Amino acid sequence: MDILRTLRQETLFARQRVYQAGEPTPLEPIELEVPGNVFVKREDLSPIKAYKWRGAFNRMALLSEDERKRPVVAASAGNHAQGVALAARILDLRAKIYMPRTTPVVKREAVYRHGGEHVEIILEGDGYDDALAAALIETHANGNAYIHAYDDLLVMAGQATLADEIVMSGEGPFDVAYLQIGGGGMAGGVANWLKTFYPKIRIVGVEGVEQASMKAAVEAGKPTPLEALDIFCDGTAVRQAGEVTFEVCRQVIDEFITVTNEEVSDAIRLYWERLRCLLEPSGAMGLAGLLKDCAASSSTAHHENALIIGCGANLDFGKLAVIADSAGIGAGRRRHLRIQIPEKPGSMLELLETGLGRLNIIDFQYGKVDPAEAWPVFGMVCSDPEHSALEERLRSEGYKFEEVDDSVEVRFRAIPCDVSLLHFPVFLELDFYERAGALLDFLQQIVRSQANFCYFNYRYTGERVGRALIGLEFDTQTQAEAFLAELPPSGDGYRYCRPLSNDEINQIVGKKD
């Protein structure tokens, strides 16, 4: 029998089983600045905060009496493990679940919460592939039933029940669906069911830039392992597409889009701002794909109804800082420029006054390392037109600059400073009110023509008050002392300014001989 037909048939049967474990999830509109209507399937509101319960329960409900005598075995980076644990408890089975040592604690704790005494977790390796290999060794050695996270037609049929709920919602027909792909189980099952009822629907598979195993498989004509695998979106970090999922996805996925970690982080931000839901990175990939497609193609203007899946909310809280730092702010996105200026008093202010200082500066890194030239790094949030206009202004003013978004100094905040070049330095701890232009206003008030910048460390944290560490140098000690004597501890645009002691300065740049 044709694999798509078999999958449709099994999806019908899965309807009769999966609702022993959970209720249908909502389909909600989400307001976005894109053409047409967009609906999101809220799988983050399911029993395990992800869709994986559907496939795991459907597969485990069909175990034979002999298979039920031994623990089932599974490998998972998190969400599938929770689905297996939930099914084991409801069906009164035992489960041994292999998970990478890198699995977030929140997901491991959730496995025990859903499965209790029915589950045992074995941590193996640093990635899903290591856990999978260990699980398969156990399966082959002891004859256990293996519950695959995606490469199983019965698992795919269970996942497809979420598409059945979409069809039954009455919100369709849908013109396009953006489906995230890890191993391809959800995407294949959902796409197959949607195409059954909406034959003209366009299915877009969304993968991470360094996770695109299904795209690689389709291009190669068979599942092909990726050499490098990014695990930022840990729920979709699969090195090689499954055999079964490949056969389905190559027939039902119309095209592929790859998204960056920054684009995924921005989609998480939008989910929070528009729906007050906090998705894990893999859960937000569909929205990231939709936004990228809309920005790149006018064809999306013809889509009356678009569909995305919020497929998981098992987010490691410690990852929030990285996500927030990677996401855009408002309508703009983060960009970093390294700009050359003369190493002399007033040159930094002149640069800021080209228009740079009135943009939303979210990162400012500089340390003096050369007596003649300075290369400060500025991180900004701006739209594409604002960025183009800034580059044009910089060129017209004769500045040399380069994009450094992925440089070591930006990623690791490496700010070198040669203490031997500093003359009578003064370092200030500054709190100023976060608004576009506030930092420039402060600098214009108190340092114009009085000093030369030798150090700057500022990064936007999301607070209404920004905090910066600023180093200034003077020609004489008398000038430095006069500057400090006249410096107000607070003023227009800033609420606090404190000079650092010599000991504190030495801790930052080292002691000058």
TrEMBL record:
- Reactions performed catalytically: L-threonine = 2-oxobutanoate + NH4(+)
Give the superkingdom in one word: Bacteria
Q: Name one GO biological process term.
A: isoleucine biosynthetic process
One term of GO molecular function:
L-serine ammonia-lyase activity
Q: E.C. number, please?
A: 4.3.1.19
Alphabetically ordered keywords of this record = Amino-acid biosynthesis, Branched-chain amino acid biosynthesis, Isoleucine biosynthesis, Lyase, Pyridoxal phosphate
What the record says about family reads: Belongs to the serine/threonine dehydratase family.
Q: What is this protein called?
A: threonine ammonia-lyase
> Source species, please?
Rubellicoccus peritrichatus
